[in-house]
Structure formats: structure tokens, C-alpha cells
Amino acid sequence: MDSASNIMLPVINLTEEILRSGKDSWTEARNRVTRAFEEYGCFIAVHDKYPSEVSDSIFSELQDLFDLPLEIKVQNTSQIPLFGYFGASWDLPLYETTSIEDATNLEAVQKFTNQMWPSKNNHFCELLHCYANQAAELDKMVSKLVFESYGVEKYHESHVGSVTYIVRFTKYRVPEQNETNVGVLPHTDKNFITILHQNDARGLEIQLKNGSWIPVDFPPSSVVIMAGDAFSVWSNGRVHSPLHRVTMKGKGRYSIAQFAFCKKLVETPTELVDDEHPLLYKPFDSLGFLGFISTDEGRKTQNPLKAYCGI
Ligand SMILES: O=C(O)CCC(=O)C(=O)O
Ligand SMILES: [Fe+2]
């Protein structure tokens, strides 16, 4: 099916001011966030975690990062499948990406920036470290809202303790004449929650449960918060992990995706399993799943999540 562009994703205010203004606004945010994850798998969040100067500055630094010589960029490798540096390929000629693991940790960010800029780039390092920590705060707040909503907040602290953040930067160049406008192919994220930030260039699209695709237009001052497969497993299928893709619209695009990955196995709380909701998945290893979908078997399966850990 094609687009259903009259449908808009929910826009939810998650500013500190709103969330601190009383029990009612917290409860409202909790209900709206949970409903959005169940219906769409994502929503647009208005937040006050990083002011527009930080966004502008980070996107300007990203241009410099992707302008570095290829022999420097390829030095950023990763043990984790699908992370590290990837340049344009025959099937994704517009796409270039690089990533940082454990991005809330200053030493990890320093290691990356020192590798990319041997003569140092303290500004980028500080900016990114601050950005990743602010996005992590947002991530924790969002997972807390949902854990509370399902009455299982007692597991939240241990969940937060198990999370590590990987930040992926992506550049999508403008297609040349007669070139594909595919930025990135349809996929679900494999982690728990993703916080997605973009410059002022559109292109992200998500698939609704009815199969139609809608554009997701959001200004750089807000973010898209999206559920990944791990969150769907944890919630016993209540939370939807949406297919999404990028279709280029004629302007160069940069995005920053911050992925919350669980280091331990993700298990569905027993409270979320009953006769009406039988257990759907075995305990889930996010990194193992990335390995699985990188194999021929994983690539060929219709529903890799079911094949990997379905019951
Ligand atoms: O660039 C975007 O907006 C989407 C990126 C994405 O989906 C991903 O890196 O998983
Ligand atoms: Fe994604």
C-alpha cells in the first residue's frame, strides 16, 4: 500500500515543566506515550533536553565529520554487527553512516573523536557527550512512563541499569538525476527504544499497522521516539515495533539515532502474561539478534523476530 498522508503521528509534550506540573500531566503523558507505542510504535516528542544551538552546532559538526577522508572514517569499526562505519553501497548509494558505542561515557566519545580528529576536536566531543546524556535522560523517562502504565515499575531500575547507548550518525546525500531516492530500506530497530533527531530535511516514513506508509515530519527541535523489537518482546507484543524507511525529498539529510540496547536478556514480566496474552517470545538477546539478521538465514526469513525467539 502507498501513503495515507492525512494521518499524523501523536505529538507529546515531555518537557520537564509539563511533567513536573503535577500528577495529572504525568498520568496524561503516561497514557498518551503508551497508547502511541501500541498504535504506531512511535511518536513525536517535544522536549527541552537540548536547545536549538546544540542541535545546530551538532549538525554542522556532522558535516565536517562526513567530509573527513575515507581512510580516516573507515577506521571506526565495531564488533557489533551493522555498526561502525559504512559508506555508500550499490543498493544504498545515498547512505553513509558511522556510530559510537557506549556514547554516554566520556572516554568512549573521546576515543571516537581522537580517532577521527587526531589533532583533537574537543568541541564535538563535549557536544556529543552532553547530547547523548540528555537523550539518555529522555529515554529513561519514556521507559518509566510505560513501565508504570503496565504496573511493572518495580522492574524499571534494573532495566535502566542494563541499558547501553549506541549513537548512529547518518548522512543521506541528494540523489542525482535518474538515481534512486531510497535513503534507507524498510526495517525495524532491534533495540529497546530509539531517539531520532534530524536536521531540517524530511524523509523519514513509517508503516502503519494497516500497511500504508506515512511521512514523519518533525522539526530539529523535537525528536521521534520509536520502539524497537526488544521493547515489543518485553511488552509481550503490546508495543508495536514499526517498519520505517527514509525516502529522500531533495535536500541533504543528517540524522542522529540514539539506540538504547539492553546488555542483559530481555524478558517479558510475568505480570504481562495471562490467558488472554500468552507468552509470545523467549528471553531475547538484542546483540545476538543483530548477529542473526546478518546471516543468510536471518535475511531470508519473513519474520526474523519470530524465527529468532518466537514461541
Ligand atoms: O535517518 C533516519 O531518520 C532513520 C535512521 C534509522 O532508521 C536507523 O538508523 O535505524
Ligand atoms: Fe531504524
From TrEMBL:
Keyword list, A-Z: Dioxygenase, Iron, Metal-binding, Oxidoreductase
The keyword Oxidoreductase is assigned to this record: yes
Domain Fe2OG dioxygenase as annotated: residue spans: 163-263
Name of one Pfam family that matches: 2OG-FeII_Oxy
InterPro entries reported in the protein's UniProt record: DIOX_N, IPNS-like_FE2OG_OXY, IPNS-like_sf, Iron_ascorbate_oxido_reductase, Oxoglu/Fe-dep_dioxygenase_dom
Keyword Disulfide bond among record annotations: no
GO molecular function, one term: dioxygenase activity
Family to which this protein belongs: Belongs to the iron/ascorbate-dependent oxidoreductase family.
Name the record gives this protein: Probable 2-oxoglutarate-dependent dioxygenase AOP1
Organism: Coffea arabica (Arabian coffee)
Gene for this chain: LOC140036899
